[in-house]
Design a protein that fits this description.
The protein is mainly α. Helix content is about 75%, strand content about 5%. The chain has one domain: Multidrug-efflux Transporter Regulator, Chain: A, Domain 2 (Orthogonal Bundle). It starts with a helix and ends with a helix. It comes from Vagococcus lutrae LBD1.
């Protein structure tokens, strides 16, 4: 898959993809006729990065996790701790977001009621 296709698929700029390769978040991408061609392994790395980044994990934490992953089973405990801590933080952010959404819904309902009363006075 060419860089333009991967960029569109993952909604990441080509510069971001090259940066991830440069800092070692994804393995070196082979070039054919001067163009990067992303294989299934690269796409799996990008899926992981995108998911973790979207959920709030920093690039440094993602890189640390990947380093531990490459080091094998001896790093299972630190990987688990990192993921569990991140999961808990994500749950807390989700709870706060849901509370905000609920409040906005309440304000919408209240405003609709006020609008109905206002229109009824005309």
């Amino acid at each position: 898959m060419k860089i333009s296709e991967v960029s569109e698929l993952y909604d990441m700029s080509a510069d971001t993809l090259r940066y991830y390769e440069k800092i070692g978040l994804i393995p070196p991408v082979p070039k054919i006729s001067g163009q990067r061609v992303y294989d299934e392994n690269s796409l799996e790395h990008l899926t992981f990065i995108q998911c973790m980044k979207t959920s709030g994990l920093s690039l440094a934490e993602i890189k640390q996790y990947q380093t531990w992953f490459r080091e094998g089973d001896a790093t299972l405990l630190p990987r688990l701790k990192l993921l569990e801590a991140h999961y808990e933080q994500s749950q807390q952010r989700l709870k706060k977001l849901q509370e905000s959404i609920d409040y906005v819904a309440y304000k919408i309902d209240l405003t609709k009621q006020n609008l109905t009363r206002y229109e009824g006075k005309e």
